[in-house]
Structures are given as C-alpha cells and as structure tokens.
Amino acid sequence: MRSRSPLLLVLTCMACHEPSTLVPPTVDEDPTLPAVDLNGTRLHLEQSGAMDGTPIVFLHGGPGNDSAYLRPLGGTCPGGSLGDTHRLVFWDQRGTGLSRRHDPSEIGYDIYRDDLDAVVDHVDPDRTGVIFIGHSWGGAYAAEYLGRHPERVRAAALLEPRALTEELDDGLPNAGTVDLADEWVNDLVFSEELLTPDDHAVADLQILIAVRDAQTFRRQLAPTPTLRLGAAVIHELIHERFYPEHYNLAPNATAYPGEVLILASDDEGGDLSAPFQMRQLDFFANPTLEVIRGGGHDDLANAQACESVAHILQYFARVGA
C-alpha cells in the first residue's frame, strides 16, 4: 500500500498557513505579474529576448502543468541562445501556473484552441508568423494549430509530443500523468467544488504533491521545476473530459508544408521517447527526428535544454526562421 505521507504533509501545511500562501499567487491575486486578458480569461504571459525578433511561443505540457520548467530553453547556452535573435513568449495556459483559475466547466480542448488563437494574434498582430516550441502536450497543441493555420507558423520544434490520437494514447503502458485514482488524492482534491481562490490553492498544492509522488517517466537527470499546477485542469484530464471523444489532435498537420523538428530522448522506459515518436512522423508532411541521448522526457527542457537549443538553432538556420 502506498504511504500516506503526502497526505500528512498537506494537512501539516494547511494547519500552519492560510491556503492562499501555500502556492504562488495568480495574476488575479498579484497585479504586478505580467498578464494579458484574452478570450475571457487572464493569462500569465511574459515576453523577453530580442523584442523585435520573430516570437517563439512556448507551449508547456500537461494539460495542467505550467511554463516554469520550459524556462531553461530560454536561458544562456554555449552555442547561442534563442533570446539573442528571437522574442521569447512564455505563458501559462488557462487554469494553470499563475494564470486565472476557472471552474472545470470552463476548461476543455475547444476553449484551449481558442486561447492559443488569441495568444498568437496578441504576439503577432501583423500576421508575419510565429515559431512554436512545444513539449509533451504542448507539442500536440502546436501540431493541432499547424493544421488549422499553417500560414501563421514559420517553424515548429516539438519535444516528445504526447500521443496525437486516442488510439495511440491507449496503447501506451504508462498512459496518464499521475494515478489520481488513489483515494486520498481524489477525495482531498475534489471533495468540494472549486469556487474560491483558496479552494484552488489547496487543490493545486495537493495535486503538486501527488504528481511529485508519482514517477511516470523512469529516467530523469534533474527534478522538474514547477511553480503551480492546475488541479481543475488535471481533474478534467483524468476524468476524460478534456479531450473530445475519439480525438485526433493533428488531423490536418500535413497542411503545414515546412520542416517540423521533433526532439526525443533515448529513454527505453519512456512512453514518448524516440521509438514512439517514429510512429508519429506520418502526421507531418516534412518531419525531422533528432534523438538526444542520456536523459528522459522532462530533461529535454531542463537538464539537457542546451542540447535541445543547439538542435533548434540548427533547424532555424535550415528553414530561415
């Protein structure tokens, strides 16, 4: 039986602190955070780097994670940094990270698509084109956009994108991000409706502990930095209400004629590593798969971020991005 130590930790934290102090505040609670109002929500969005350069829109994983763990991709690397020549756009998706919290009824695949449309319009009002760098779910998020708006994308680098169809996902041995069937997690996180900021704060803390207590990907060189997960989003995902039934996240991605870079690990125990990514290449018209050795799924954006950046910069040089 799994240890209940995470539960004891949660209760101890709640006994010592107000719920709102257990996790970082959202943009609704801290007006000093960089934010934009788009598509009926308020998103934590920050731009840096070469502000006159082509915007790189970073798409984090989950759904339900935040953008903090992608930040190393925008850092200083020996062979050159993305921010030297490009504008870096880091943002937390609806209901995650430091963005506004929503009731589960306001979370789902269709509204996430609309959110991404709004983000792209915001950072690229002249419609000159954006670049996507997406990890895990973020890679699938980018692939879906490629099929709908190929003319708006100048390049796309996908780091171990998640399974692009329900059929592929069902075939994965470690499908899912964390076992929320554990009674203590399910009862604590979702025993009440998420109505107030404090409700969300407690649920977000509990889900963070549950995720860290799990080990979906066997190989990991360094811990994954996280500011704040979105419990309501993960709740919809686990209860199979986020994606449409029999989903295909990239039905028209071949409409994008340019090269798509896919980076993958060589982790033999990783669901989404290179062998699996080879099965997804046919979703794209012109894919290139590069393998980064020695790490795991999250390491592509963290411990091995500079290796990923080196491949991405070479890709940009090839496609003129």
Strand order of the largest sheet: 1-2-4-3-5-6-7-8
Domain tally: 1
CATH class: Alpha Beta
Report the C-alpha radius of gyration, rounded. Answer: 19 Å
Q: Which structural class is indicated by helix and strand composition?
A: alpha/beta
> From N to C, what is the helix and strand string?
HEEEEHEHEHHHHEHEH
H/I helix tally: 9
Uncertain stretches of 5 or more adjacent residues = 1-17
Mean pLDDT comes to 87
Helix content: 25-40%
Quantity of strands, as a count: 8
Shape field: globular
Question: What's the CATH architecture?
Answer: 3-Layer(aba) Sandwich
Determine the CATH topology.
Rossmann fold
Biggest sheet character: 8 strands, mixed
Cα distance, first to last residue? Answer: 52 Å
The CATH homologous superfamily name equals Alpha/Beta hydrolase fold, catalytic domain
Structure description:
The protein has 321 residues and is an alpha/beta fold. It has one domain (5-256, 273-319): Rossmann fold (3-Layer(aba) Sandwich), CATH 3.40.50. Helix content is 30%, strand content 15%. It has 9 helices and 8 strands. An 8-stranded mixed β-sheet has the order 1-2-4-3-5-6-7-8, with helices on both faces. A hairpin with a 2-residue loop joins strand 1 (35-38) and strand 2. Helix 1 (5-16) runs antiparallel to helix 6 (197-213). The N and C termini lie far apart (52 Å). The relative contact order is 0.16. Residues 1-17 have low confidence and may be disordered.
